[in-house]
Input
Amino acid sequence: MTQKLGRRAFLGSALGAGLSLLTGRQFVDALPVEAQGRGENKQYLPIVMNSPKSELYAVRNIPPPNFIQTKYHPGVESLLTLMGEHGLKFYRHEPADALSGPDGIIASNDVVLIKVNAQWKQRGCTNSDVVRGLIERILAFPGGFHGEVVIIDNGQGRGSLDCNQDYDGDTSEAANAEKQTQTFNYLAKTVFAGKPVSAYLLDPIRGKPRVDEGNHEKQGYRDINPHPERKSWSISYPCFNTAGGRRVEVARGVWTGNAYASNLKLINMPVLKTHGGCGVTGALKLFYGLLSMSYSSGVYHYSEIGQVLGEMFAHVRAPDLNIMDCIWISHSDLRGYPPSATSRQNTLIAGLDPVAMDYWASKYILYPVSHNPNHHPDMASQYSDSNLAQYLAQAAAEINACGPIGGKPVLYGDSSIICHQV
Output
């Protein structure tokens, strides 16, 4: 049975964000934003009428990859090219070309965290063919890549980068890929052996004693509370050491020994599927694999789920890019199993706005397959047993009030989204 979002939390979030989000109208009044996205010295960020719409990028009809003929993934290549054509360059590099520009996303010395869904196997985890293609493109940085790539997830005790979770007694490896043996660990240890690529499962450190401020050695979680007046729960983020010898503290950056470097990048790669608690697993919900539920689990499932995830984006770290895997979608079982619960869509979606992405993907990719009103963000608001519209409103309210992404509000509603498609 679907658990309802807290009425108090939803009403407060909806009022804070403005119910106009549901129709795509922009904010008129200034909204409170905490300095530098976390903690202290509240300021106000004016968001005016006619602010830019949220841009998404979608590639459909993607053929299966052939890694014997080429190391690149056809969908990833088309997606990054489409982004570049509309001004969102993948490489931070000059001279400018189809994928490069001075304001690009990935620099040559970045530590790039690729956040996947590894709590489930089969079609319930992120497509590792797509992950492989993205890593190949990072390593192909013009002039050479001198940073590091780390595949990460926290499955809250059920995660596996070998994709061998127990499905009805079956513990065999079953990656979401054309070849099911191509797990996340297989990518790190075999495909990219000898390259600066690794995989780090956060499950083993999720319940360890907290990592205090100033501790740059312990591997575990550091908890923070963006709202000091709240005593009941907090959010958290991982602090760990990479295979390349770097110290990553996700909310702060890369610790160099005396300061934090800003060369930490996060690419969020959800797989689109149903979810009983909030309607849809997408760009927002994937951040449950970044926080630790060992710290305060009650409100996470599900009374304050939208606010929890909004706080993760606003106060921990907003992804530098979201790429949603819709090669296969799971329309009736979040595990991506059995096969009858899945549908091949051969689509990838990218963008910077996770709320817009979840709105658009739910409405135009998931709902046409499932015909489930809980997957339709406009229709969902009409149903008393649906959480999707409330979930999106909660997350949007917290993000926009405390730390809009890239200085822009997150938005939803058809009139607030431009989706460039090929």
Observations:
- Residues 354-370 form the longest helix (17 residues).
- Residues 1-50 have pLDDT under 50 and may be disordered.
- Helices lie at 7-17, 74-85, 128-139, 184-191, 305-316, 354-370, 377-380, 388-402.
- The chain is about 20% helix and 20% strand.
